[in-house]
Amino acid sequence: MKIKHSPRLAIDSEVVLKEAVDRISQANQIGQPARRDFLRRSLTLGGLAMLTGCTLADKTSVDLALTRISRLNDEVQGWLFAPSRLAPTYPESMITRPFPFNAYYGEDEVREVEESSYRLEVTGMVADKRKWALSELRAMPQIDQITRHICVEGWSAIGKWGGVSFGSFLRHVGADLGAKYVGFKCADDYYTSIDMATALHPQTVLALTYDGQPLPPKYGFPMKLRMPTKLGYKNPKHIQAMFVTNTYPGGYWEDQGYNWFGGS
Ligand SMILES: Nc1nc2c(c(=O)[nH]1)N[C@H]1C(S)=C(S)[C@@H](COP(=O)(O)O)O[C@H]1N2
Ligand SMILES: [Mo]
Question: Whole-structure pTM over 0.90, yes or no?
Answer without folding.
Answer: no
